[in-house]
Amino acid sequence: MTELLIPDTVAEPLNLADPRNFLNRELSSLAFHRRVLEEALDPSLPLLERVKFLAIFSTNLDEFFMIRVSGIRQQVAARVFERSADGKTPFEQLRAIRAAVAPLMELQRACFIQDLQPKLAAEGVFIQEYSQLSIHQQAWLKNYFDNEIFPVLTPLAFDPGHPFPHISNLSLNLAVVIQDPDSDEHFARIKVPASLPRLVSVPSEQPNTVCYTWLEQIIAENISTLFPGMQVSEAYTFRVIRNADVEIEEDEAADLLETIQAGVRQRRFGSVTKLSVHSTMPPRIVDLLIDNLEVERDDVYQLNGSLDLSSLMSVVRLDRWQLKLPPFKPSVPAVLSTGEDIFNVVQRRDVLLHHPYDSFMPVVDFLQAAARDPNVLAIKQTLYRVGSNSPIVKALLKARENDKQVAVLVELKARFDEENNIEWAKALEREGVHVVYGLMGLKTHCKVALVVRKERDGVSRYLHLGTGNYNAVTANIYTDLGLLTCNPDFGADASDLFNFLTGYSRQSQFRKLWIAPINLRRRLTHMIEREIQHQQAGRSGKLIFKMNSLVDPNIIQLLYRASQAGVEIQLLVRGMCSLRPGVEGLSETIQVKSIVGRFLEHSRLYYARNGGDEQLYVGSADLMERNLDRRVEVLFPIEDPSLLNYIREEILGVAWRDTAKARILLPNGLYGCHLPPAGEEPFDSQMYFLRRHTA
């Protein structure tokens, strides 16, 4: 594993802000990516599940370079010397990232070439080099090239009369060397078209088997067709990753929608943050690419085999169920399964949904019922990532068709979902929905749906509040919580929140909800400080937090203070964690675990024992500066004692007992396996929930 070079002990007297007390967030992010890669290396998983994790690792690493590495490179270019919380300059962080990434990429390729590829072949799924194919298969591919590939290709020359062609973000390319009988060698670039399948299905010559080969190899083998009368002497693959973190200058944008659209287009032209080349590429071609792409030599990675393994996801979709985990059918809570009107149910009691084990359909049903109910006056909702063919958006459109007042905040700045959200925003606007794009300088990340309904005793407000996006697809693979409620205080706070989001409001007081950037940091700080006071007064303090990331320096220092006071602290942090647990005199009572499994752990929960008067908040916010200070986030309390007890024991407690997929963060930043007690089988928390909800 990639070791973080941080001392195991902290000198006295303790300064909580000492850089030695923090783990580097970028290296912690890479440690998470390694945990994803470890799932691909796990022989106990079905074969295609392992392939899936290998593809996910590839996509994750691409995004890491597009966003995190590009941001640090920009700091280096701007001669920024400000140090990170752990004391590293941007240049030092880049150097540490490069040292950590190279072995990860080598491990990934070894996993595929030496382990997964042979095992797939043994199961009749062949992913072969072009040279390994039979004469008949190559002949079939020649015909496929002539009819399907050749018409799409555009060779671009590079010489004094032709400028170096633009190489777009994430593109896979062939660098071609051509010998002209009448002159010196020439260079040309051919882009491997993303519009065609990257893994090309080839007629198999064995029964009950499938065979694939790589698109770029088919092009390379037939490349002379593109240069008639010339001699193609060499062809090498290379791949470019560019800066995709395009800054949006909102204060200079007359129309945020147009600005976001322009920003998405600009991603193709950002500076190069990573150049991957095949290991056979000679130095003179590497130098040519370095010079013309203006990339640092340290940002060049020479690799064997395919330069992009994210395309393996197409193999995962094969109908080979014996090579996958058994499918499951999410359940619907019994209280919502009787056919009773959903508003009547929610009026009597709060309803908790635990996705993906509980179906997402009750959320869709809630909005569909609101769309057709003649007593519903208005629907207000935030949309962050909704996906394509969204039943949520369709319900909102139906509501507007039925003359409901509908207001939707569409977050256009949801990274990599901008284009999807732009299309939905336009569709909603065309039907007369009030669409707004959030607050200047703040990304709206909260998950809130408010339904205003006329009833016998007046107007009531029904709410769905959640930790996850209103996305019916990701709801099947992300673990999230949602609450259906008609709590009057929640409803009043939600109305104030939407007024804050859609109009002019300086609302600073809320009854129940913790809302960033207004009061969430202050309330969370108070929660931790109060637990310190309980511990000092002899009332055993305890905090259990579950989140995606923990990197906010101020919150980390507060947790250190709580640990020094003796508060027991259990942290479930899926991804980045800059806190160093288990350090003598600093964080002895803090344990950190990370679970990477079949489903993406996505819910955020914050529990305090509070001297016996337990408090539990659930919502959209991670413990990062951006979430607490630069986003609109919502945490909501669980006030029903039975639901609070269920979440504490049956969600947080079960996750903490995991010994199958959990990893324990060590003081030096490495992660170790959480082994079960001697004689016991490993306990898989996600499988436990599947059995409970599908029995």
Automatic annotation (TrEMBL):
<keyword id="KW-0547">Nucleotide-binding</keyword>
<dbReference type="Pfam" id="PF13090">
    <property type="entry name" value="PP_kinase_C"/>
</dbReference>
<feature type="active site" description="Phosphohistidine intermediate">
    <location>
        <position position="445"/>
    </location>
</feature>
<dbReference type="Pfam" id="PF02503">
    <property type="entry name" value="PP_kinase"/>
</dbReference>
<keyword id="KW-0597">Phosphoprotein</keyword>
<keyword id="KW-0479">Metal-binding</keyword>
<comment type="function">
    <text>Catalyzes the reversible transfer of the terminal phosphate of ATP to form a long-chain polyphosphate (polyP).</text>
</comment>
<feature type="binding site">
    <location>
        <position position="60"/>
    </location>
    <ligand>
        <name>ATP</name>
    </ligand>
</feature>
<keyword id="KW-0067">ATP-binding</keyword>
<feature type="binding site">
    <location>
        <position position="602"/>
    </location>
    <ligand>
        <name>ATP</name>
    </ligand>
</feature>
<protein>
    <recommendedName>
        <fullName>Polyphosphate kinase</fullName>
        <ecNumber>2.7.4.1</ecNumber>
    </recommendedName>
</protein>
<dbReference type="Pfam" id="PF17941">
    <property type="entry name" value="PP_kinase_C_1"/>
</dbReference>
<feature type="domain" description="Polyphosphate kinase N-terminal">
    <location>
        <begin position="22"/>
        <end position="127"/>
    </location>
</feature>
<dbReference type="InterPro" id="IPR036830">
    <property type="entry name" value="PP_kinase_middle_dom_sf"/>
</dbReference>
<dbReference type="GO" id="GO:0016301">
    <property type="term" value="F:kinase activity"/>
</dbReference>
<feature type="domain" description="Polyphosphate kinase middle">
    <location>
        <begin position="137"/>
        <end position="314"/>
    </location>
</feature>
<feature type="binding site">
    <location>
        <position position="478"/>
    </location>
    <ligand>
        <name>ATP</name>
    </ligand>
</feature>
<dbReference type="InterPro" id="IPR025200">
    <property type="entry name" value="PPK_C_dom2"/>
</dbReference>
<keyword id="KW-0460">Magnesium</keyword>
<dbReference type="InterPro" id="IPR025198">
    <property type="entry name" value="PPK_N_dom"/>
</dbReference>
<keyword id="KW-0808">Transferase</keyword>
<feature type="domain" description="Polyphosphate kinase C-terminal">
    <location>
        <begin position="513"/>
        <end position="686"/>
    </location>
</feature>
<keyword id="KW-0418">Kinase</keyword>
<feature type="binding site">
    <location>
        <position position="385"/>
    </location>
    <ligand>
        <name>Mg(2+)</name>
    </ligand>
</feature>
<dbReference type="InterPro" id="IPR041108">
    <property type="entry name" value="PP_kinase_C_1"/>
</dbReference>
<dbReference type="InterPro" id="IPR003414">
    <property type="entry name" value="PP_kinase"/>
</dbReference>
<dbReference type="Pfam" id="PF13089">
    <property type="entry name" value="PP_kinase_N"/>
</dbReference>
<comment type="similarity">
    <text>Belongs to the polyphosphate kinase 1 (PPK1) family.</text>
</comment>
<feature type="binding site">
    <location>
        <position position="574"/>
    </location>
    <ligand>
        <name>ATP</name>
    </ligand>
</feature>
<dbReference type="InterPro" id="IPR024953">
    <property type="entry name" value="PP_kinase_middle"/>
</dbReference>
<dbReference type="InterPro" id="IPR036832">
    <property type="entry name" value="PPK_N_dom_sf"/>
</dbReference>
<feature type="domain" description="Polyphosphate kinase C-terminal">
    <location>
        <begin position="341"/>
        <end position="506"/>
    </location>
</feature>
<feature type="binding site">
    <location>
        <position position="415"/>
    </location>
    <ligand>
        <name>Mg(2+)</name>
    </ligand>
</feature>
